[in-house]
Design brief:
- The protein has 365 residues and is an alpha+beta fold.
- 27% of the residues lie in helices and 33% in strands.
- The chain contains 6 helices and 21 strands.
- The chain has helices at residues 2-62, 111-114, 252-265, 282-287, 306-310, 331-337, and strands spanning 66-72, 94-100, 106-109, 119-123, 129-131, 133-138, 143-147, 170-175, 183-197, 203-209, 221-223, 229-236, 247-251, 271-272, 275-279, 296-301, 317-321, 324-325, 343-350, 353-360, 362-363.
- The strands form 4 sheets. The chain has a 7-stranded antiparallel β-sheet. Strands 8-9-10-13-12-11 form a 6-stranded antiparallel β-barrel. Strands 15, 16, 17, 18, 19 and 20 form a 6-stranded antiparallel β-sheet that branches.
- A hairpin with a 5-residue loop joins β11 (221-223) and β12.
- The longest helix is centred in the N-terminal third of the chain and has 61 residues, at 2-62.
- Residues 1-34 and 77-85 have low confidence and may be disordered.
């Protein structure tokens, strides 16, 4: 009996010991899991703070250079945008945004912001008001430049490189939606080469973003996380008239060219080749082992124009113009921005053979 009891007690001690070890192991595992979750949470918060700091620094760097443009129209008393502003808004018939890009007061904005105005006032971030001078615009691109003058230098934004953007890159939009000066919104680049017709006069390749753009944001800058201007906000696609997640900005690479043309010539000169071309069909791209989207195929050539004089023929594949790789999306833009009256190299494929031609592009009439 004693032996049985002693053996039973021994077995009970073993069971208790095993159960205790299980509890210790479970507790250790739980603590380890909790510690990992806490560590992961802290890392997530830290990453969010880094991004938040980048947003804040980009905004603070550029807010002083972003302006509100207020337009007056002769014999017109009712404003287009009078949702907010009270009696002050009644002085103006239009409202938009702009960005100062040089210390001497040169401002980039949209053509539609200043179109049909008899006077444009420029309100700075600090509240100072200036009258715009030397207004020049290009309706076909919806771009305009103007200038304000002072004895003191103006804060100016730094221009970036829109050609280096990728889908998913974070961006900030700054402007004056509904005359709410210096409003900042954030989003990403949804597409870098969106071919879009914005109006009867305006079409081209735009940056697409989901950063909020509303009436009054037009002409304001789109910024990267380094605080550099990579686009000029210009339009939205919407069924309601307000932002629904699809906004468009003019790439700063094109805005720089338009600014230069307007300053030097008072208008934008656009080159032309005299060809009709289209995107390569998939079977043609496969035949020549070309990546999807690269090159365009010539459908027809206009007699006695630059392309025909250079030897371009229907069926040719245009691969490069100058140093620029050609795609269906950028072909028209590359041609338009090419130097006029100067030799330009055109790389083509004809029956599988690569040829180098030279053309002198003409100005579009």
């Amino acid at each position: 009996m004693f032996s049985f009891v002693r053996m039973r007690n021994s077995l009970l001690l073993i069971v208790i010991a095993v159960f205790a070890c299980g509890l210790n192991a479970h507790w250790a595992t739980s603590v380890s899991a909790d510690d990992g979750s806490s560590s992961s949470g802290n890392a997530g918060v830290a990453s969010a703070r880094v991004l938040s700091n980048a947003f804040r620094m980009a905004a603070e760097k550029n807010l002083p250079a972003v302006v509100t443009l207020l337009g007056q129209i002769e014999n017109k008393e009712q404003p287009m945008l009078n949702i907010i502003g009270g009696s002050e808004s009644q002085k103006y018939a239009s409202s938009g945004s702009g960005v100062i890009i040089s210390a001497d007061g040169l401002i980039l904005t949209n053509h539609h912001v200043i179109a049909d105005t008899s006077r444009v006032d420029v309100r700075l971030y600090d509240g100072h008001l200036y009258r715009a001078e030397e207004i020049k615009s290009d309706p076909a691109s919806d771009m305009a430049i103007l200038r304000i003058k002072s004895d003191e230098p103006f804060p100016a934004a730094e221009l970036g490189d829109s050609d280096q953007l990728h889908v998913g890159d974070w961006v900030l939009a700054i402007g004056s939606p509904f005359q709410l000066d210096a409003s900042v919104s954030a989003g990403i680049i949804s597409r870098t080469e969106r071919m879009q017709r914005l109006s009867q006069d305006v079409q081209g390749v735009f940056l697409q973003t989901d950063a909020a753009i509303n009436p009054g944001n037009s002409g304001g800058p789109l910024l990267d996380l380094d605080g550099k201007v990579i686009g000029i906000n210009t339009a939205i696609t919407s069924r309601t008239g307000v932002f629904q997640g699809v906004g468009f900005a003019i790439p700063i690479s094109r805005a720089k060219w338009i600014r230069r043309e307007l300053e030097e010539h008072g208008k934008v000169r656009r080159a032309q080749m005299g060809v009709r071309a289209f995107q390569l069909p998939p079977d043609v791209a496969e035949e020549f082992k070309l990546a999807p989207g690269l090159g365009v195929q010539v459908e027809s050539v206009v007699y006695n124009r630059a392309a025909q004089k250079a030897g371009v023929k229907p069926g040719d594949l245009i691969m490069r113009i100058g140093n620029e790789q050609i795609t269906a999306a950028n072909f028209a833009e590359i041609v338009q921005q090419s130097p006029i009256g100067e030799p330009v190299k055109i790389s083509i494929l004809r029956n599988g053979e690569q040829l180098e031609l030279t053309a002198e592009l003409e100005a579009r009439q």
